[in-house]
Design brief:
The protein is of the alpha/beta class. The chain contains twelve helices and 13 strands. The longest helix has 26 residues. It starts with a strand and ends with a helix. The structure holds acetyl coenzyme *A.
Length: 367
């Protein structure tokens, strides 16, 4: 029997603190008019020190599970797509797994920069369609404000913090993720990079002194690359899904720059109204930008059941990808799941496990 991977839950979380263009103009040589004209960005949300990538991811995930009405123990796989993980390891996905109390699942991060959310949706959908899992939690979460050089006007104006999450579930009913494509071109790896902090250039006084632990970008080249791939990737997944462009109700592109989205619309010969655009309020939230835009489209009623959409993005790597999705929404369920109860249980379980590990270490560590 053919299995399908439906998106049955969605949620987002953004920090409260909003940073406007005018505020940025107070500490670097820029101005609101330049930023708006070149990027379309008006403001972005910035995490406070307590708001980590894992925390935003957990908040978005809990909302998505609430919409899908699934228990954390139903989740078989957690994928966090992030360009700003809390650590190189453990993965941010494992931190989310512990916080939500998903006791029976695998958890891992993927790093495909801003295309990461599409990569994660593809991996989760394939795992569901193959029959190996039933339910997946896919999250895009970022605190890129911590990796931005706030003295570099060419990059600090672009990025923002936030998280978005989807629940994907198996069904025999046709629909869900219809087709997807993932691509990469590592020859452009140097166009957008954080040079230090990995094994190539480990953190050192030299790396920090030379700002090598911050985002570095060749904006013009990334712009050219992005405008080349967006339209083509969209057309490819629409064709692979057996659809035509006129069957697509909405396109949800990665929110990096208003002008890049305009160029994609021109390439596809579609009016801008067919695109979900919220870059003016969030900036580029990397892996979180597509799920945040989609959450807003759903909440505002722009996306309804039985409509087709395309998600499409690009990012460092270079990477790009797209997916065509038939939107169905939550599965009907009889009993309401109270997420707060599972939250309390998750916290108690986590504390108990840590304590047990300490006691065991104390007993066996002496042998
Ligand atoms: N304020 C004022 N002037 C500025 C600023 C600023 N914030 N930034 C650059 N300038 C100046 C430059 O110094 C340059 O001056 P010069 O002509 O005297 O040298 C001038 O403005 C033009 O600079 P460009 O880089 O040519 O500006 P451009 O029109 O290309 O816009 C931008 C720059 C917005 C970064 C654009 O190239 C872009 O959006 N690129 C894509 C970036 C992107 O999407 N990155 C995310 C990828 S996703 C991921 O994986 C994270």
């Amino acid at each position: 029997m053919t299995r399908y991977a439906h998106i049955t839950g969605w949620g987002m979380s953004v920090p409260e603190r909003v940073l406007t263009n005018d505020e940025i103009a107070q500490f670097v040589d820029t101005n609101d008019a330049w930023i708006r004209e070149r990027t379309g960005i008006r403001e972005r949300h910035i995490a406070n020190p307590e708001e980590t990538t894992g925390l935003l991811a957990t908040q978005a995930a809990l909302k998505a599970m609430e919409v899908a009405n699934v228990r954390p123990t139903d989740v078989d796989m957690i994928i966090v797509a992030t360009s700003s993980p809390e650590h190189l390891f453990p993965s941010t996905a494992c931190l989310v797994q512990d916080r939500i109390g998903a006791t029976d699942c695998g958890a891992f991060d993927i790093l495909a920069a801003c295309s990461g959310f599409i990569y994660a949706v593809d991996i989760a959908a394939q795992a569901i369609k193959s029959g190996s899992i039933q339910t997946a939690l896919v999250i895009g979460s970022e605190t890129l404000s911590r990796l931005v050089n706030w003295r570099d006007r060419t990059t600090c104006i672009l990025f923002g913090d936030g998280a978005g999450a989807f629940v994907l579930q198996a069904s025999d009913e046709p629909g869900g993720v219809l087709s997807s494509m993932l691509r990469s071109d590592g020859s452009g790896g140097d166009l957008l990079t954080i040079p230090a902090g990995g094994s190539s250039i480990p953190a050192s006084p030299h790396s920090v002194g030379n700002d090598l632990h911050f985002i570095q970008m060749n904006g013009r080249e990334v712009y050219r690359f992005a405008t080349r791939v967006m339209a083509k990737a969209t057309e490819q997944v629409v064709e692979a899904a057996g659809l035509k462009m006129e069957d697509i109700h909405l396109i949800v592109p990665h929110q990096a720059n208003y002008r890049i989205i305009e160029a994609a619309a021109r390439g596809l010969k579609l009016p801008l109204e067919r695109f979900v655009i919220n870059v003016e309020r969030y900036g580029n939230t990397s892996t979180a930008s597509i799920p945040i835009a989609l959450c807003e489209a759903i909440e505002s009623g722009r996306l309804q059941r039985e409509q087709n959409i395309v998600i499409v993005g690009f990012g460092a790597g270079l990477t790009w990808g797209a997916a065509a999705i038939h939107w169905t929404g939550p599965f009907p369920s009889e009993k309401k799941v109270y997420q707060q109860r599972y939250q309390l249980l998750a916290r108690a379980r986590s504390i108990a496990r840590r304590t047990l590990r300490r006691v065991e270490g104390w007993i066996y560590g002496r042998k």
